[in-house]
Amino acid sequence: MTTPKPIQLDDGPDSTNAVAEYLRRHRDFLVNQPELLQEITVPHETGEAVSLVERQVATLRKRNKQLQIKLREWVNVAEHNDHLSLKLHHLTRMLIAARDLDTVFSVLYQSLVSDFRADYVVLWLFVDTPPGQNQRREFLGSRTKQQVVLEDVFEKAVPFCGVLSDAQRAVLFESAAQEVGSAAVLALRGAEWRGILAIGVRDARRFQAEMGTDFLIRLSEIVSAVLCRWVGSTDEQSKARRGA
Q1: Please, what is the Cα angle at 232 between 231 and 233, to 5 degrees?
Q2: What is the mean pLDDT of residues 16-22?
Q3: Which listed CATH number (3.30.70.20, 3.30.450.40, 3.40.50.720, 3.30.460.10) goes with 100-243?
Q4: What is the pTM of this model?
Q5: Which residues lie across from 201 on neighbouring strands?
């Protein structure tokens, strides 16, 4: 069985006649292809006045186009969220599999930069270095100037997103402060400790105050839960490890 060759059409009169002849022979073509009526213009002869039907069709066509654009936006957002969820799932598995605290920090920093396009990452824990752990820059102690400057972060129920104050940006990102256009700052919490995870980017529009924070909240909860395996009281660490 041979496949019929496709008809080649152009803008010439022969093509116009061919289309007209096809429609004469297939009078139900547009009935079976209703979506075409949304894209073609069929004028109604009413003299100089514009037909009411024509106006209604134009309005419906415009509304349909707007709905198509909105639908594409929703699909793009859904695909983006699915992509983020997969990356967060992968990060969670890597953090749970980490055998020590050094690996936890290494995995977290690498993932935020490579998978989540962070330009700068800062993690501080306002608690002393746990016994048996290596001295690391993440452990600042319980009373620090950094904690005072960032106190409002802990007062909010959701992560901070947007442009930091000059003082906050300088404290968090130090020599790179002027390069940070926007940031997300997440509060980390355990039963007996607090901390922050700051993600800075050069793009001033990347993190905005009105953006959704569900993903950041989940990231904060996951990192906090993982850190509880090594940070805090012995009881807290034991409970976290049993939960893992």
Answers
A1: 130
A2: 79
A3: 3.30.450.40
A4: 0.67
A5: 182
